[in-house]
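User: I'm writing a tutorial on reading structure tokens. Could you give me a worked example: one chain, its sequence, then its tokens, then a sentence or two explaining what the tokens reveal?
Assistant: Sure. Here is the example chain.
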Amino acid sequence: MRSMSNYDRLYTLVLIMLPALSISTNTLSSTESLTVGSNKTIVSSGETFELGFFNLPSSSRWYLGIWYKKIPTRTYVWVANRDNPLSNSNGTLRISDNNLVMFDQSGTSVWSTNRTRGDAGSPLVAELLDNGNFVLRHLNNSDQDVFLWQSFDFLTDTLLPEMKLGWDRKTGLNRHLRSWRNPDDPSSGDFSTKLETTRGFPEFYAWNRDEIIYRSGPWSGNRFGSDVLDMKPIDYLGFNFTADNEQVTYSYRITKPDVYSRVILSSAGLLQRFTWIETEQSWRQLWYLPRDLCDDYRECGDYGYCDLNTSPVCNCIQGFETRNNQTAGCARKTRLSCGGKDGFVRLKKMKLPDTTVTVVDSGVGLKECEERCLKDCNCTAFANMDIRNGGSGCVIWKGDIFDIRNFPNGGQDLYVRLAAADLVDKRGKRGKIIALSIGVTIFLLLCFIIFRFWKKKQKRSIAIQTPIVDEGRIEDSLMNELAITSRRYISRENKTDDDLELSLMEFEVVALATNNFSNANKLGRGGFGTVYKGRLLDGKEIAVKRLSKMSLQGTDEFKNEVKLIARLQHINLVRLIGCCIDKGEKMLIYEYLENLSLDSHIFDITRRSNLNWQMRFDITNGSLEGMMLKLIRGRW
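And here are its predicted structure tokens:
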């Protein structure tokens, strides 16, 4: 026997390694096969997904499936022979008769793509794409529009990005999700999720065998009733909904690289979205459905709506009353007349009722929709078909309406038909409430006006009831009292202040100082009179507050004002230097402030810019200091 040459060794090494090299390929040609136990797999070009045979720890059965290649936690996204597994570790996948076929140990087919035979002379190849789609195509044509078969048309429990959920109108194919039987058994479970179109217009339903357990609400132009597949805006997710002559489908896409997100229907019947968190090395659940009691199908029965903010959660629509069994729904209080006298109550932020019996017209608006409903004796409710741009289209419900809920946010307006008596009832109650509110307001306003009128009348009465005595005696008495007051406060203030003078001036002196109260000398007008600028014979400038003769201020009020102002003499307050009384005239004489009063600076747009915060603080402190000194000394 001759020794093995270097060439022979190299050839033998290539033959030994050839099976291993097939691990990295993303295709399976018509001359290749995939067998159980060989550790051969097909890996997508970007190494995102991997296809091969697998079995679960608790079972000896074998399946052909796809899982994430880059994620360490084995996560299956598709299973070919879920309902017909291999009973042992003997099985082969290969292209046969223009189909992908899986054979058991006896050569019997246990799974196939089951497509009609095509051109036998055209070679075929199976390829695992980087989006997780396993396809069968012609070797020289990779156009996805001409795939002979693809796994994306035969979903199991997982919806991947770019997968379509819904109907292909050309082929009649309905792509839907079906759960695993349990976490250790990928066979078809009891739960399924489908996009239904035969019930009126598109919406998602979740089923437990033949029983509906959840309904999303219909497509409203930019979302499903409760955003069934995208509860919150997520920056790396986008979605597509297509409804035309060829298809009615939903799909989503990932807009960022290296982000893995999937929607699954669990074996417990929950529709869940998971995203892989690399830093945590785990899948994080973003949302799930059904999520609360109001998501349960027909929770509140006919003409009832569910609201989580009420107790109990089931409520009757206006014009309806609860039946004996609350979950059985509500019954009308008044039968519809079907004679044009009926009307509608508007329910806001609602999940629209089940669309089993509906009529849809995209070409009319809300007003025409209402008119059509009134003309149809079987119509019980209507709504816009599309809520975008203010709303368009018409949906009319015929027969009982059910499976309605109120959303805190989202939803849309629903108009429910009521008998005229039930509409009048609510409008009457609302009218009574409005009338009562207006009546109370008017009553309070009248009370206020009467009170103000009584107060004015009381003041006028006091002024009229003042004893009529000789005017000269009043003037003399008042002047004497003011003189005494002036001297008293002069003497007291001199104990602490340098000087305080309060003089009684003659009317002629004041008139001369103000140029006979000319308008040129007018500084302003207040509630009790006019203020004039004046100049005394010694050149001293003064401000004269001349009380109006129409003022209700009597002698006592005038005396009290003089006394009060005299007590408030302080460096930080305007200084009272005298007063004048002559027949019907009463005047207060103040020192003249060249820069006007403080309010003329605070409220004037130009002047207030001169007052910074420190100046305002100092002014406030000074004013308070003057008043506090009087309080401390017991003068006020």
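What the tokens reveal: Confidence is low (pLDDT under 50) at residues 1-5, 7-23, 463-479, 481-500. Residues 513 and 534 are 5 Å apart (CA to CA).
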